[in-house]
Amino acid sequence: MGTVYALFVGIDDYPAPQRGLRGAVNDVEAAAALLGALARGPFEPRLLRNGEATTDGVVAALRDHLGAAGPGDTALFWFSGHGTDFEAVLPLHRRTEATGRYQALVCADSPREGGRPLADKELGGLLEEVAARGAHVAAVLDCCFSGGATRASVPAGVIARYAPPATWWQAPAAQRGLTGAAGTSTARHVLLAAGRLDELSYERDFDGVPHGVFTYALLAAVRAAGPGATYRDVLAAAHCAVQTERADQHPVLFPPAPGGPADRPFLGGTVARTRAPHLLRHGPHGWEVDCGRVHGLSAHDPDGTEFTVTAPGASPRVVRVRAVHADRAEVDPVGPEPDRRRAHPVALSALALPPTRVRIETPDGSAAARAAAALLREVLASAGPGGGPAPLLRLTDDPASAAGHLLRVVVSPDRDGGLKAGVVRRDGSAAVPPLPLDGREDARRVADCLHHLTRWHQLFTLDNPSSPLKDLVRVEILPWTYDGPWSSDRPGPLLPDGSGEIVCRYGHAPTGRPREPWLSIRLHNRSATRTLWCVLLNLTDSHAAHTDLYPGHFIGPGRTGFALDDRPVALSVPAHRARPGAEVRDWLKLIVSEGELNTSPFHLPPWNLDAAGDRGAHRPGAHTVLRLTPPGRGDRDLGEARPQAPGQWTTRTIPLRTVIPDGNRPEQQAGSPF
């Protein structure tokens, strides 16, 4: 293990008229003591308390102390104190901040005349500077991030860590390093934040000692966590503890993408186990799994849906679903109750939804084809968690079955004398190229493919047409010219053609080579009163899915969110398919909710039989689950959040077709290059 460089900043004593705190210094001292004891290598802490933590002092310590971390080291920044927000002043930031405001840490001298807070844009840049040197970087922020609530709503004995913005903070903002361009690279640090952007962070006495509610919960989760627990694991446990204390405070994690820094062990290191597909945790309403209606579970008939604890070495424990909400499912343990202090990895082991029906056919009737079909049936019967049946698939012998999605697997000889499996949709079209089926490993790969296609189809068909949120968010797709974005004197939004698709054609670069079309994609919240959370899912014809274009932001009433922070979205045909007349399809699925959702289930890699490590690497149950992890999106500059849990939600799907024109096909030459 490398060295852990840790900077702890705790501020209780703020100058008048700002209200002081009582537990911030306690927070950082307790955190330094616990993390120093847990560090598996050298631990280099630095504490800035009260008056030591001026804005310039914190910035200098971030650069000098955390800046000493290099490859193999961990750099941790922990702040406990007041937080605030104020209006964004730079035109660039006003376009890319979905709420139009900066969030900031209030340092010891910030409230004084001429003082300044440490704004999120500046703090994020400082952390990224450390990460750019190769260190693993994490930040824990226990403070308020918005001015949406007042002290009048705070109960007696509970203090909100919020400071109202000073009038002089806005004017010099452009001179304080807040000049970052839109479209900065993906964050390389992980952030654990005490609450959403419009929420207060609270502190109170615990056994007579004042602490931040979030810090107290997080440290308890770290103590209870087992070896190798990730940031996602400890945040999930802390989230439930905070919710039990304060229903109006929702800790969040950034970045939410699976396989990123959030899935590294707390304080760094190498992940030694497979990431949990779902997490079971104990919250204010009892046991719950972070999987709900928007991820595919049915709220009408949850009986029969269950999850199984999958932690290495754990005795099998089953939890059964009793109620399904938009973002989570309430469950009851069967048998011994798990440890309430921890989050537990679980996998879907039974599903109440109609699964995909799979019919296996052997048209030539040969003994070899029948034997291969029998082997595939055997593999599917043991492809679920614990070696049981796959919950997303059901074998059927009824060729006319209309219950749920249907895939047919046609086993037949191939040209090399072996056998192949053709995966065919209900309409007879091939879902993927034929797959080899000459042994058990091939049968497992066919099972993997069936699971992958099922999950993609679930995402593609996800809908809630009766929601009152339907049509409140408009998706605009505009051409982005190569000398700048769309403006009022350039073409307007693209419209679907007669087939309902938006067709985007390659143009020609000055060199004469084909040039892919560039687009600007915008999400406009047309509601006059509602702040809505949006994610833009890109489904591809290679059966991939991702949220890279718009990974999950809150958009204020009448405001607009921009895909890729208003950078151009380039559509391209993959190199191995690029030729005149070639085309590919994408489907943009907008998901709108009243509150933030778990986006990990919305990620699928492209289906590729020959991907490195795929053949022979099957793990029972690996592709039978919905792949859920704790709710993500905790970066404070990503948009505003609502205090309530998500309730209403809706979707909209926009088909895109990208074409390389063929001079011999006039219909592909029509219209603009977009």
Question: Helix count?
Answer: 8
CATH domain class of the largest domain: Alpha Beta
Mean pLDDT metric: 79
What is the name of the CATH topology of the largest domain? Rossmann fold
> What proportion of the residues is helical, as a percent range?
10-25%
Shape: globular
Task: Name the descriptors.
674 residues; six-stranded antiparallel beta barrel; globular; Rossmann fold; alpha+beta; six-stranded mixed β-sheet; disordered C terminus; 16% helix
Quick structural overview:
With 674 residues, the protein is an alpha+beta fold. It contains 8 helices and 34 strands. The longest helix has 22 residues.
Q: How would you describe the overall organization of this protein?
A:
Residues 5-253 form the Peptidase C14 caspase domain. This protein has 674 residues and is of the alpha+beta class. It folds into four domains: 4-272, Rossmann fold (3-Layer(aba) Sandwich); 281-350; 356-461, Rossmann fold, CATH 3.40.50; 473-596 and 633-668, Immunoglobulins (Immunoglobulin-like, Sandwich). 16% of the residues lie in helices and 28% in strands. The chain is built from eight helices and 34 strands. The strands form eight sheets. A six-stranded mixed sheet has the order 2-1-3-7-9-12, sandwiched between helices. A six-stranded antiparallel barrel has the order 13-14-17-16-15-18. A five-stranded mixed sheet has the order 20-19-21-22-23. β1 (4-10), α1 and β2 (43-49) form a beta-alpha-beta unit. The chain is globular, with a radius of gyration of 26 Å. The chain starts with a strand and ends in a 15-residue tail after the last strand. Mean pLDDT is 79; it is low at 146-156, 167-185, 612-646 and 666-674.
